[in-house]
Specification:
There is one protein chain. The chain is of the alpha/beta class and 372 residues long. 46% of the residues lie in helices and 15% in strands. It is built from 17 helices and twelve strands. The protein has an eight-stranded parallel barrel with strand order 3-6-7-8-9-10-11-12, surrounded by seven helices. Helix 1 packs across helix 3, helix 10 runs antiparallel to helix 13 and helix 14 packs antiparallel against helix 15.
């Protein structure tokens, strides 16, 4: 296992962290014996960073992680969980939720405590409610050794949040296709320059980078490094970056744990050759060329007078085209009865993106394509 350091704590952390939101399930609930065994398998293999949250697995993940940390495992790991900021309505709620989380986990402190899924609106809410004072108190009292936030918004918001508080860590979505989205890779570098630990989530884009791939992408990979898996490529893209502290993987099976341990045993900063970096750049370009619409999900077209969920449809359609997974889009589209577009053109005047094909025509074309 490769290890790195949380800069401010000089705390050794495994480059591979375990995200505990995709634990094995049985009959719609966490299969506790299998989940405990899986977490311990990862720790025994060298993983020393476990990431959970209040809401994961219908509020049961923390309890299961706490079970796995018995028998001496707590002393072997850095434990992270998150404050569900959407549940906080008054300052005292923060303390109450944190106390509940410690009880579920069966611990007296956590190593990392994050404000969960900040965007501009949630950040402004938490700042107004005194979250900074709460986090400082946790840190001073030793109930949270490091404090930070996880993030889902645009780069300018990320920069604003970085500058607002003396954070120890941040958690961002980053992978081969998100280098210029959300926090961006430039934002990752900025956080590292500020002395923060950078935790990466969604390194495989929810599995999309490994589940399916266009033929041209697999051909590029195979020509450069025959036999290397898509997961190996995706993780190496991140492991090559010294600014990144640890990379979370939501592992669900022993096979996934073992494969990830193998990858993270072999790769570290500077692991990519010039040819491999060029291959990854060409892979990104190949994926991006397959995007038929390019909707950013800004939502200016909403609400549609007819109730058509335009951003959801367009972004799902783009994902299916990128990853050559039409079946996924057909399943998404069939989930609920969708009202039809009547061509009122309200969306056309509201959309700032000026697509090559007018929105109403694209919606109508997709509906025709999905017709049985």
């Amino acid at each position: 296992m490769q290890y790195r350091l949380f800069p401010r704590e000089s705390q050794k952390v495994s480059a591979l962290g375990m995200g505990c939101m995709r634990l094995p399930e049985k009959d719609g609930a966490v299969d506790v014996p299998r989940a405990v065994a899986l977490i311990r398998r990862a720790v025994d293999g060298g993983v020393n960073y476990l990431d959970t949250a209040y809401t994961y697995h219908n509020q049961q993940s923390e309890r299961v992680v706490g079970e796995a940390l018995r028998d001496g495992y707590r002393e072997r790991v850095l434990l992270a969980t998150k404050l569900p900021v959407w549940k906080v309505e008054k300052p005292e709620d923060m303390e109450a939720v944190f106390a509940e989380q410690l009880a579920k986990l069966g611990v007296e402190y956590v190593d990392v405590y994050l404000l969960h899924a900040l965007d501009r609106k949630r950040f402004e809410k938490m700042r107004a409610l005194g979250a900074f004072a709460f986090l400082r108190r946790l840190r001073q009292q030793g109930r949270a050794r490091m404090v930070g936030f996880s993030f889902h918004d645009e780069a300018d918001v990320f920069h604003e949040i970085l500058a607002a508080f003396d954070w120890d860590v941040c958690q961002v979505q980053m992978n081969l296709l998100d280098e210029r989205r959300q926090a961006t890779m430039d934002g990752v570098r900025l956080a590292a320059q500020r002395g923060m630990g950078v935790i990466v989530m969604e390194p495989l884009r929810g599995g999309a980078l490994t589940k399916t791939a266009p033929a041209e992408v697999d051909a590029l990979y195979e020509a450069c490094a025959p036999g290397r898996s898509r997961a190996d490529w995706a993780f190496r893209y991140l492991l090559d970056r010294p600014e990144i502290t640890t990379i979370l993987s939501g592992m669900s099976t022993p096979g996934q744990v073992d494969e990830n341990l193998r990858i993270f045993d072999a790769a570290g900063p500077g692991c990519l050759t010039a040819a491999e970096r060029e291959t990854l750049a060409r892979v990104r370009e190949a994926y991006e060329k397959r995007i038929p619409i390019g909707c950013t999900g800004c939502g200016y077209c909403q609400p549609c007078p007819q109730g058509v969920k335009i951003p959801e449809i367009f972004q799902a359609y783009d994902r299916a085209a990128m990853f050559d997974d039409r079946a996924a889009f057909r399943a998404f589209y069939a989930k609920e009865e969708r009202p039809g577009c009547v061509g009122c053109l309200a969306c056309e005047s509201a959309c700032p993106q000026h697509f090559a094909m007018p929105i109403h025509l694209r919606i109508q074309a997709i509906a025709e394509e999905m017709r049985p």
